[in-house]
Amino acid sequence: MGAGASVLSCCRGEFEESDNTGSEYQPLLGDRERQAVAALVKLFENDTRISFYDGEPLRALTVLARSDVHHLQLSAATAFSEISEYDVRAVPQEALAPVLYLLQSAYADVQQGAASALGNLASVSANKRLIVEMGGLELLVRQMLSPNTEAQINSVGCITNLAADEENKLAIARSGALIPLVRLGRSRDLRVQRNATGALLNMTHQAELREKLVAAGAVAVLVDLLHAKDEDTLYYAITALSNIAVDSDGRDALWSAQAKLVTELLHIMQVHKIKVQAQVALTLRNLASDARFQRAIVQSNGLDALLPLLQSSYTALVVAAAACLRNLSIHADNEDPIICAGLLPELMDLVPQADQPELQCHAIATIRNLAANNGSDKQAFIDAGLFDRFRMALESTDAQPQVLCELAAAFSVFALNDQLWRPVVELGMCHLLVRLLRCGHTDTEYNACLAIGSLAGKGHPEAAEELMRLWPRGLREGLARALTLPEYASSNVRPAVLWVLMALLNSRRAAVCKVLRADSQMLDAIESIGVSHVPSLSTSTSASWSLLPSFFATKGKSDEMATSPVIADCKTDVDDDGICGFAPEAQRMRSLAAQIVALVQDTD
Questions:
Q1: Is the pTM higher than 0.90?
Q2: Contacts of 564 (CB under 8 A, 6+ apart)
Q3: Cα-flanking dihedrals φ and ψ of residue 574, to 5°?
Q4: Would you tell me the crossing angle of helices 401-414 and 430-437 to the nearest 10 degrees?
Q5: Which residues contact 79 (CB under 8 A, 6 or more apart)?
Q6: Sign of CA dihedral 548, 550, 556, 561
Q7: Are 74 and 117 a contacting pair, CB within 8 Å?
Q8: What is the dihedral of CA 294, 296, 299, 302, to 10 degrees?
Q9: How far apart are CA 165 and CA 366, in angstroms?
């Protein structure tokens, strides 16, 4: 039955006479009520497609909504509920006012109809804030506290929709809704449970509210909901836990339940649908922003659960698994388990996939993290095709800037490793680093400088000879750009270039001095950097290393918190000379530039 037919039958029923025998006396209608009913009957008979949100229909329904007669209130609530099922749009304040009035009715069935209508209308952005501004939130919280299941379903469903608006979230928290929502997450009614979990999920999108949810006891409820039979409820709970895991305080709260949490998540990841599996992997990734969870996930056989996802034909699953592995690989104790689990070849195969840049970035960063432990045997990396895959990625014409940056960062780690630096040189990959040095993206150029400088600093003749061979083939151009172009004045590329030059001087002083003395542009640029502060210099290159800025020290893993949603901004200062860095580092850079000039001028 359509809304028009439902309301029409209710309205007509009010005209039927009661014989007053065997039934309760029906209240008489007032003139305004009778006129409103008559108007609606006439409107329905002439056009069943009328709008309830303005004009005569709205005025008539408003009269019915404010009536003391139960049946008339119910007729109005039913009309608003059923019409809002298919006519969902932004409505004026005048249309919401009678619905909110009905929400305060003494009759439970009227309240339910009004809450249902409000929930439907709350799916429209413009209505969300208007409902809150008009005081609807407090009425809905009151409905949530009702023992009536239908009232709980409709009120919580409406709050779920309201919570999708960022400005409403804080108002919902201040209204006292969080504790009732957490309590209703344990409801035995699956519909109430689903709506409450959806509302909790919507409230986890702001850090302040995540903290309030943790304080309200949401973690224990959400962990218990990992047993939910309803697929939507389960997905909402997993996603809410993932968002809570963004914050360190949230991860502390989750750690108290880690044994049950990790075990349940890994079980779910192996038996549920793709959408749920992917969200579990992303939740584990967020948890793995914490060293405790990095070990706990691996010790709970999490790698065995991630391997099938990494081999999946569904890109979303592969990306989620790779992102999780990226954070797991940060922990030094996880390197051997990841390799032993057979994940390294799978990761290598992802590196050249230029049509999936996000996937490439996760795979490259994971391999970089694993390679950062200089004390372990890296032959497995070479055997798995490390350099073939990285060469393919570097040589791809479709490589995205973020992928090139990850590749350069990986090579900066390889160049430090006693087993991996030599293949970089022997396989002729230095020219690819030189290409990255001229790519136009400062982060990539910075990492390329670190790699080239580390190779030069090895002190092995073959590395220095290869770099000097590339000097006229692009290396000089890349270094000169960073020293001379004004856009590099406030980037870390410029001091990194100075470090490369010092490393080359340390290994091949005569050859480097010769090319620099013949290159007035580069030498003048270096001298201009150091001229503002000339320290007491020594011609000993060993002394120069004490001036190396600390932000060049690439010790350990360079991917801490790489895929955590936490974004930490590191504030640096720009001094009067346009040199970026903390003040002592800018001083060191000037000292390093001055020392390079002195070494070039003093060397015969």
A1: no
A2: 246, 285, 286, 289, 327
A3: -110, 115
A4: 130
A5: 3, 6, 7, 52, 61
A6: negative
A7: no
A8: -70
A9: 36
